[in-house]
Amino acid sequence: MRVDDFDFELPPERIALRPASPRDAARMLVADTRGLRDRVVRELPEILRAGDCLVFNDTRVIPARLEGRRGDAAISATLHKREGPRRWRAFIRNARRLRDGDTIAFGGEVQAVAADRAADGSFALDFAGDEPVEILLERAGSMPLPPYIASRRPTDARDARDYQTMFAREAGAVAAPTAALHFTPELMAELDAAGIAHETLTLHVGAGTFLPVKAEDTDDHVMHAEWGRIDAATADRLNAVRRDGGRVIAVGTTSLRLIESAAGADDVIRPFEGDTDIFITPGYRFRGVDGLMTNFHLPRSTLFMLVSALMGLERMQAVYAHAIAGDYRFYSYGDASLLLPA
């Protein structure tokens, strides 16, 4: 399909720069067989059914944005995928000033050597020293806010809290699974009381999720791989939900992509551990999920293509037109949609 088919006009003022407070006070646009309904996230227990299961991504965002110097050149690096105990693949700003073998000095006496430049312009960074890289990043890095927020305001101490979900446990993401930012312990208790289950899996979200689609046709776009894991016990419980008539509802596109990577043509979810570069566009047959809760995504993005595959492109264009006209807040810190196809 043409990438232009997934374009739409979004007024800049619709981009949220801070999350709702409290988190579950965010608005939620429900799209299902009944049409479109304007609700609030905290109303989820009365919208979903007993026996349904919400699936969360328990990845934890690391301070993956680094500012440093190579000689007299300023170098900005955003880590996006671990390649070894001390090696991370990174997108580099001012990459024309960097060569394989150059040493970059970051803050806090943290240094890394650039290596293995890839065709997409990224470098591998080999961090010097014996301290775990996670400790080095805590000393020298900052929270990697999405570019559409970082370009409009500086990252601050509040983002260290705001940009982590309540489920964050497994360190390794450089972007938050933002649909789960809307959940609070109080909401989870109400969901449990309503008979709505939840499970967690791990997908370490990479910075590639923010890369624009430069191809003119979706067939020509190459997805960046991300590492994920679903253990056998979780897979068994998710399969049991569906066998018993419940719905598996992914909270966030990251959870959905991993479930679909683990599901076979027989619609059975199996244990999974490794990289996935699954790219879901209209025409895809969903095998493991029955619905999706997600934020509102960028025009022409792979994530808008994914929700269009789930609900239909024409339907999602109507959903987004309703959201824009209704002053919903967009992107990572914005409001939510609950998408339940027939």
From TrEMBL:
Pathways involved: tRNA modification; tRNA-queuosine biosynthesis
Catalytic activity: 7-aminomethyl-7-carbaguanosine(34) in tRNA + S-adenosyl-L-methionine = epoxyqueuosine(34) in tRNA + adenine + L-methionine + 2 H(+)
Domain of life: Bacteria
Class in the EC hierarchy, top level: transferase
This protein's UniProt keywords: Cytoplasm, Glycosyltransferase, Queuosine biosynthesis, S-adenosyl-L-methionine, Transferase
Subcellular location: Cytoplasm
Annotated InterPro entries: QueA, QueA_dom1, QueA_dom2, QueA_sf
SUPFAM superfamilies per the UniProt record, alphabetical: QueA-like
GO function terms (MF aspect): S-adenosylmethionine:tRNA ribosyltransferase-isomerase activity
EC number, as in UniProt: 2.4.99.17
Pfam families listed in its UniProt record: Queuosine_synth (PF02547)
Subunit structure: Monomer.
NCBIfam families: PRK00147.1, queA
Function per UniProt: Transfers and isomerizes the ribose moiety from AdoMet to the 7-aminomethyl group of 7-deazaguanine (preQ1-tRNA) to give epoxyqueuosine (oQ-tRNA).
Family, similarity comment: Belongs to the QueA family.
Name of this protein: S-adenosylmethionine:tRNA ribosyltransferase-isomerase
Gene: queA
